[in-house]
Design a protein that fits this description.
single chain, mainly alpha, Transcription Regulator spoIIAA, 2 domains, four-stranded parallel beta sheet, three-stranded antiparallel beta sheet, 28 helices, transmembrane
Length: 648
Amino acid sequence: MLQGAKNKMSGPLVSGTCSGQEEVSDLKSPLSSRFREPLTHARFQELFGGAEEPELPAEPCSPWLCRLWRRRACSCSGLGAWHVLQARLPPLRWLPHYRWRAWLLGDAVAGVTVGIVHVPQGMAFALLTSVPPVFGLYTSFFPVLIYSLLGTGRHLSTGTFAVLSLMTGSVVERLVPDPLAGNLSGIEREQLEARRVGAAAAVAFGSGALMLVMFALQLGVLSTFLSEPVVKALTSGAAVHVLVSQLPSLFGLSLPRQIGCFSLFKTLAAVFMALARSSPAELTISALSLALLVPVKELNVRFRDRLPTPIPGEVVMVLLASVLCFTSSLDTRYNVQVVGLLPGGFPQPLFPTLDELPRILADSLPIALVTFAVSTSLASIYADKYSYTIDPNQELLAHGVSNLVSSLFSCFPNSATLATTSLLVDAGGNTQLAGLFSCIIVLSVLLWLGPFFYYLPKAVLACINISSMRQMFFQIQELPQLWHISRVDFTVWMVTWVAVVTLNVDLGLAVGVVVSMMTVVCRTQRVQCLALGLAEGTELYRPLRESHKLLQVPGVEPIRVAVLDFSGIPFADAAGAREVVQLTRRCQDAGICLLLAQCNALVLETLTRAGLLDRMTPEQLFVSVQDAAAHALERLKPTGPKICTVWV
């Protein structure tokens, strides 16, 4: 951690800046002065005074027991319990300050708009998960309701997400593959679908349980390991997988789903070999659907500021295709695959089958990480835009409970979604209350409107899947700018994307995280040590290699005192501690008094174990840089100051 210190300590130590005596002159009127020195606590008390704290009576117990008792008493008090409850149920914080007249209409319109889009998207993403379409509606209801009560992202829309559906579908196909016989009876098909629903719910249960464990361990900081280039490359590469996986449905082909490494190329080869058996009717439906959905998406993006609410192209396409299929009897005349009957109401709560819990947990880990990374990054973007804060650990709790509880109702893994979150913001959403209006729309479909989707062609759902990937595909447009800003991040993006597309989403995520961490390690190990010199005619110190003619190495007045500012060092490793000890020895040999300022207890303990106090006395440690500088000037008064302050 102190390698950065080597960079800055090597140069300035031999060429420090001079600090004049006037820098610590007496401050008669600090409030009227235009420039003043930073005040220490002692100096503040001297100038302004302050009420002295009353002495507390002696406590019979030991100090650490007393501190523990006070902490527990505070946490168990009524006020402490209320604060904990507010932190775990965010509506208790924002609902009392809700601006009903200004926000209610926007939340209602946004919630209804998002709910309308949830219906076709939920059914479409259920096909990606290899479960019947109605379970996509369940996943668009229960998780949204739970996140509205527990989440801290006011503008976040949760529900079915294509990337998670694709990852879950691969697990489901591996655990419950299609039988080799091919043709199944109605009862056998229902049993197969029930097993797949159970497998998908078990994955949701496992990912939710893992996120709750991460919440208990306060591991919200793990979101930093999934950097922005990794997340964007992951979602962009997964969009390619979604596109290729929907090709059989676009062409009306019944092909087994390819899983594992190189599944994308296997699917392309299978589609190419079976093109002669494609259905002209379903191919026509797919072409017409894309011809409507893609332009509508573009119109919504280009005229987002002029449209009062985005055009619901998916809903229009669903209605038109259902009416066309019903009036033309496409399902019986041309064997067009349709959604069929959607069972009304809710499924009975059922504990997922956990017979293969170890394998499910291994598959649930990357799903949990992607859920947390995508949701937290989306929430942070809109929190910064609208000036509020989110709690990453509370987000872990919200998504963990959302996945675990919804799995009891046969839902598959869910998270925040890019498309519906953008739609919610564009439609005027302000708070989590919009999620409740979205749930009302999905609930009405589950209770009353389900039969109207009987004749909806599955090819239309495949087109909805493809058109919803627009944002992820267009992330590739950011690559030239990323190359200009940071070529290291560009490399991480490209390596992750190639790994996701070539291998699969799980392995691509692992490759991206490893490469991202390796770049951080490599950059921290390649430290740069510069020799500085005084530029002629100035008081600036510049690297000697920039221009040898304009710079000269100072040496007329040797440095007497060096102050190391440790305020930016949270901890020190063994190598950094030994470096500081060696620096102390070199300063002693050169006759330089080395002072340490603002060194926290953890760093000081590490330095002490490395032998710092064998080379330095406790009088050379200071609470602030100002105190250290004042001590140095007092010590150097007879000969004049020559001080070097180093920030590490």
